[in-house]
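W.,

You were right to be curious about this one. When I first looked at the sequence I had no strong expectations either way, so I just let the prediction run and decided to look at it fresh. Below is the sequence, 401 residues in total, followed by the output.
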Amino acid sequence: METLMREAAPQALGALIRRYGRFDACEDAVQEALLAAAQQWPAEGVPDNPRAWLITVASRRLTDQWRSEDARRKRETTVALQEDRHLPGPGEEQVSDRDDTLTLLFLCCHPSLSPSSQIALTLRAVGGLTTAEIAAAFLVPESTMGQRISRAKKSIKTSGTGFHMPPIEESRKSLAVVLHVLYLIFNEGYTATSGEDLQRLDLADEAMRLTRMVRRLRPEDGEVAGLLALMLLTDSRRAARTTPDGGLVPLAGQDRSRWNRARIDEGVALITDSLSRTTVGPYQLQAAISAVHAEAPTAAETDWPQILALYDLLDRVQPGPMVSLNRAVAVAMVEGPDAGLALLPALEKGLDGSHRLDAVRAHLLEMKGEREAAREAYLLAAERTASAPERRYLEEKAAGL
């Protein structure tokens, strides 16, 4: 029942916003409908169409509220007020089958919002997480997160954006923003940027659930498939990434028997199919790189020349400092540490202050045998990271040298 409610809630919210506008009021009405469902469904049974049930009940909550408000609301609620006031039973709901989830995602990822606001609003409206849960995930006070979400809703309202699917060309750009937001949510869940825990599994799981939802709505899109494959292949390693006490285990040191083979198989099948029939994009290339790692029986058997070739292509399709940094590691694995180290000075401006640049430099210096320089780089990286598990790992590497 919880899964049904979780999947139907954003669909109901989307339908109400399309019909009535007023993001805040519609969201409150859906929350009240969910409370009513939690009380009624266990006793009377889950309705045949949970989404329609929630829409109907939430619509009535809105009309009850608006009847006592300004008279100009009358024309918006006339039809709804003519309906019976009892809660619909199983099979009674008569609501359009239209799924507005993707439109709601586009709205939450509106370009007028900052990435942090897009993430927060997506998790709140589409993911169904409470403000307190989102605040805890990003280690900020609940009041701060509440203000961020409130400002995001106001920004959308003042932008004058209607609740509708954008034109085809704009839709492609909007979908790219949606995928980027889901990617950011997954990354924060898979490797938390700060705090005591390496992973925030609820965020990673929610990102995968929402990406599966987008995949159902856009099954023909290669980048949607690529992003889902990337998440599955990356997340397949979650059980092997930490020690029993929460310490970080790097890729090369992980027990591959603990990797989730079902997720690997699904991810490999997704990316193989996607690459064979669609234009190649950055998420597909990253998924292909993850697939090469996933299919290597041991770290020593990793096909680094193939990974380097994929990074060369990714660097042309979507250049960026992190892509270049990862490519430098691949170069080092194929051509030796000196070749990789030679690429790092050019990345200092784009990754200024990033602990990841120092960590890679330390790793390559250790490969080269320059122990003292590697130790200093590990300590600098440890000083710069806000993640406690990463800091402990980097300090342990330094101590080992």
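Here's what jumped out at me. The chain has 19 helices and two strands. And, maybe more interesting for your project: Residues 79-86 have pLDDT under 50 and may be disordered.

Coffee later to discuss?

I.
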